[in-house]
Amino acid sequence: xxxxxxxxxxxxxxxxxxxxxxEEFTKWLLFFEQKPIGWREDDRTYKLLRAQxxxxxxxxxxxxxxxxxxxxxxxxxxxxxxxxxxKSTLFSKMxxxxxxxxxxxx
Length: 106
Prior knowledge:
Layout: H1 2-9, H2 13-19, H3 22-34, H4 39-51, H5 58-61, H6 63-71, H7 83-86, H8 89-96
């Protein structure tokens, strides 16, 4: 894992061995456990596969995406606050655009 960390941080291994505190190293290990190396590439590939008709769930195809799903808290629709967006300039421009009156208002 040390070499993978060095590759991701673009730092020579000897620098990590000699200068990185153990506490920081363990935090990096935890970080990569929660966000596995390569998850972005796997996610991109999964989206391409979905576009081609693959019905499998992300975690069934890629272990990195399964780990990512397990570490991501589920957000309920009610938890997302849209009130600040509805007050924004962008939202008012959307409403004033052609067809903007059809923007759904929750």
